Amino acid sequence: MKKSKRVKKSNSWRVKQQRDQFFKKSKTLGYRSRASFKLIELNKKFKFINNNTNLLDIGSYPGGWSQVATQIINKGRIMAIDIKNMDPIKNVKFLRGDILKDSTEDKIMNYFNAKLDVIISDMAADTTGNKSLDSIRTNQLCLEVITLAKNILKPKGVLVSKLFMGEDFIEVKNLAKSLFRQVNFFKPESSRKESKETYLHCEFLKSL
Ligand SMILES: C[S@@+](CC[C@H](N)C(=O)[O-])C[C@H]1O[C@@H](n2cnc3c(N)ncnc32)[C@H](O)[C@@H]1O
Question: Whose CA is closest to 35, among 11, 9, 57?
Fold first, then answer.
């Protein structure tokens, strides 16, 4: 076997092993998705969820991130939103709906009755088979979440959102930097190495 093929094969073996590790671990710990580990890593790095955080989880189905949030939050409120139906999680108010609809923002504000501490979004557009198009559509969702955050986050609030390192990455970065004083990017270990997925962490809204 040629060396490059051997390297590719051993890399793909390692990637599969890593994927299985997180999959198995999520089953053992009772998480609904391996995505839970990404939020655990993000919170370990940036420390934005505490026991009295009021938190909105956007694109929550099947519920791995909401499960992690409930393990930390016991005084704050948690609302989860998805266009897909999500099985109930104790202490999580689930709203089935599209975050892109104006009426959804009203429903969020009615539930919290105040601006929020944290918004987490792991939203991803449905895959089409065209990776570049998928990346553009998911980054479009990320832009929408950044704009929503400007309206509903407290001045010292935190936004964490999935995005892809595609050609429109710079557009996402520029919008985030125009609205927040601190903007960071972080790829958790539990995010597949071969995926262009990464996470945006923003805090301290600028007073415009
Ligand atoms: C990668 S999954 C989220 C996994 C979740 N964080 C977990 O830990 O289990 C992405 C979700 O985004 C949702 N989504 C995509 N577009 C949406 C929209 N416009 N409004 C609400 N949810 C959306 C999808 O239905 C999908 O369930």
Answer: 57
pLDDT score at 8: 56
Check if 199 has its Cβ closer than 6 Å to any atom of ligand 1: no
What kind and span of H or E run contains 81? strand 78-82
**Interatomic CA distance for residues 83 and 61, integer angstroms:** 8
Question: Ligand 1: which of 123, 138, 160 to mutate, most ligand atoms within 8 Å of CB?
Answer: 123
- Is residue 37 in contact with ligand 1, taking CB distance under 6 Å? no
CA distance 190 to 23: 10
Give the predicted TM-score (pTM) of the model.
0.92
- Tens-place pLDDT, residues 116-140: 999 999 999 999 999 899 999 999 9
Domain that holds residue 191: 35-205
Catalytic residues: 162
Residues 147-162 pLDDT 10s: 999 999 999 999 999 9
Q: How many structural domains does the chain have?
A: 2
Q: Is 15 in the pocket of ligand 1 (CB under 6 A)?
A: no
Residue of the CA atom closest to atom 13 of ligand 1? 59
Query: How much is the pLDDT for 70?
Result: 98
Domain identity same for 159 and 172? yes
